[in-house]
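Appendix B, Record 12. Input sequence as logged:
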Amino acid sequence: MKIDSEVVMQIAKLAHLEMEQNEVELFTKQLQEILQYIEQLNEVEESATPFSFTEFLPSQTRPDSVLPSLPVDDVLKNAPEHIQRFFKVPRIIP
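Logged structural output:
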């Protein structure tokens, strides 16, 4: 498909955009380059092997284990505000 200034003006009209002549020329050139690149991509052979794994690999995660955590009182010392044993945070939803 060939992009010319008339096509760019029609697109601008549909998008409710006001464009000056230098912008029309710039966008005409840019859109034409994009379409040329897409045409180049369409020429790529699609029968090649995809670049993704089709087999699942074994999981490399560590097993879950219970570890001691910090005492609640020590954690709340770092909080700007808290209510009983909970952090007080600003309300997000009115």
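The longest helix spans residues 21-42.
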